[in-house]
Design a protein that fits this description.
Blueprint lengths: L11 E8 L21 H18 L2 E10 L7 H14 L7 E6 L6 H9 L4 E7 L3 H6 L6 H13 L4 E8 L6 H14 L3 E6 L7 H7 L7 H17 L3 E4 L2 E3 L6 H8 L4 E3 L4 E4 L2 E5 L3 H11 L3 E6 L2 H13 L5 E2 L9 H8 L3 E4 L2 E4 L1 H4 L2 H8 L1
Parallel strand pairs: 1-2, 1-9, 2-3, 3-4, 4-5, 5-6
Antiparallel strand pairs: 6-8, 7-8, 10-11, 11-12, 13-15, 14-15
The structure holds iron/sulfur cluster (SF4).
The site of iron/sulfur cluster has 11 residues, from loops.
């Protein structure tokens, strides 16, 4: 049973649900996911609801944000989505939810599916477009065309989602800065409420990593920098706030769920491979759908590994995440404004001080990881 220290019984306000199914596996993707294959999806949903039930009985919860990620949550059928969402509503305290996000891939939903999401409380859709260039969509092994992504975006708009986001990737093998500019411009023309731009990284145990190791692909932070800077210049010029290194939002559309992670708030994760962090306790569910289902059926939870974060772990993580945000890190966490490292960052125009916080400049954001290490 998950033990939450009595001194820390502040309710958990953020919930993540991992749906591991994808129609096709993208060769760069490092998340836990698989094609549905022979998985009994009804049994999987029953396990998710049972895990939620056990969590609600053992952890103080007052959920304010929900995030369905994966995998591809919108790959679940209409019937299975209804079953899952009804089950969670009956099991968890969701009356105070103010933001409910679904990650979605183009062409994995229709009007009726979006209607099910909306009537069960979803407020945001984050559409994994990645590129508007068919050549790169093929390279990324994506299952949609630019036209399909546009149709899905329009459909989601018509379905009345209060917040609609588009996810893009840059620094793709062979991508030119002009091709990236086209991707940004096409996205801006659609006027989404939120835009995420992710630098392609080469993850362990992926086909892209194998190709990288064979020398077919290369990574060069200096070559990637102009891509980041172009987005950081063009997107805010259209009224979006660059509130985290990879994220831009129109006023009122920043992700409250992700912001909670970056602030170090507690969160509960349900589903295979999902991570939970409640105060200083962190555990990861078994990253295997069959074993996850069997574990929940036997023990009511599927915790695979657990750790208690030390003060040092906690500070390191807080620093790295907070520095990625426009708010930055509280000066008191980095030794105050007179710390020589802070002074040096200010002199090099890599950071600035805003009242009580140290935040990175655009130039500093290119070096966020290095700066976080220097400030430790
Ligand atoms: S659709 Fe998303 S989760 Fe699924 S394999 Fe592709 S990148 Fe990974």
């Amino acid at each position: 049973m998950i033990q939450v220290p009595p001194a820390d019984r502040e309710p958990v306000r953020h919930l993540y649900v991992h749906i591991p199914f994808c129609h096709r596996i993208c060769p760069y993707c490092g998340f836990y996911k698989h094609t549905p294959g022979a998985t009994d999806r009804k049994r999987f949903i029953a396990a998710l609801v049972a895990e939620a039930h056990h969590a609600a009985a053992t952890i103080p919860l007052d959920i304010e944000t929900v995030f369905f990620g994966g995998g591809t949550p919108t790959l679940l059928s209409h019937t299975h989505l209804e079953l899952l969402l009804d089950g969670l509503h009956q099991t968890l305290p969701l009356s105070n939810v103010r933001e409910w996000t679904f990650e979605a891939n183009p062409k994995t939903f229709d009007r009726a599916k979006l209607e099910i999401l909306r009537t069960h409380g979803a407020t945001r859709l984050s559409l994994g477009v990645q590129s508007w260039n068919s050549q790169f969509l093929q390279l990324l092994g994506r299952d949609h065309t630019p036209e399909g992504a546009r149709e899905s975006f329009e459909l989601a708009r018509q379905s009345g989602f209060p917040s609609l986001g588009i996810d893009l990737m840059f620094a793709l093998p062979g991508q030119t800065i002009d091709q990236w500019r086209d991707d940004i411009d096409t996205t801006l023309d659609l006027q989404p409420d939120h835009i995420s731009t992710y630098n392609l990284t080469y993850e362990e145990d992926t086909e892209f990593m194998q190709r990288f190791e064979r020398g077919e692909f290369h990574q060069d932070p200096d070559a990637d920098a102009p891509f980041f800077l172009l987005a950081a210049e063009k997107i805010p010029a259209k009224g979006y706030h660059h509130y985290e290194i990879s994220n831009y939002a129109r006023p009122g559309h920043a992700s409250q769920h992700n912001s909670a992670y970056w602030k170090g708030s507690s969160y509960l994760g349900l589903g295979p491979s999902a991570v939970s962090t409640i105060h200083r306790q962190r555990w990861t569910n078994i990253p295997d759908t069959t074993r996850y289902i069997e574990a929940v059926e036997s023990f009511h939870h599927a915790r695979g590994s657990a750790e208690t974060l030390t003060d040092n772990d906690w500070r390191t993580e807080r620093l790295a995440l907070a520095l990625r945000t426009s708010q930055g890190i509280a000066l008191e966490m980095v030794g105050g404004p007179h710390n020589p490292t802070v002074q040096s960052l200010l002199e090099q125009n890599l950071a600035h001080i805003r009242q009580t916080h140290l935040a990175l400049t655009r130039k500093g954001r290119l070096l966020a990881d290095t700066i976080a290490t220097e400030l430790l």
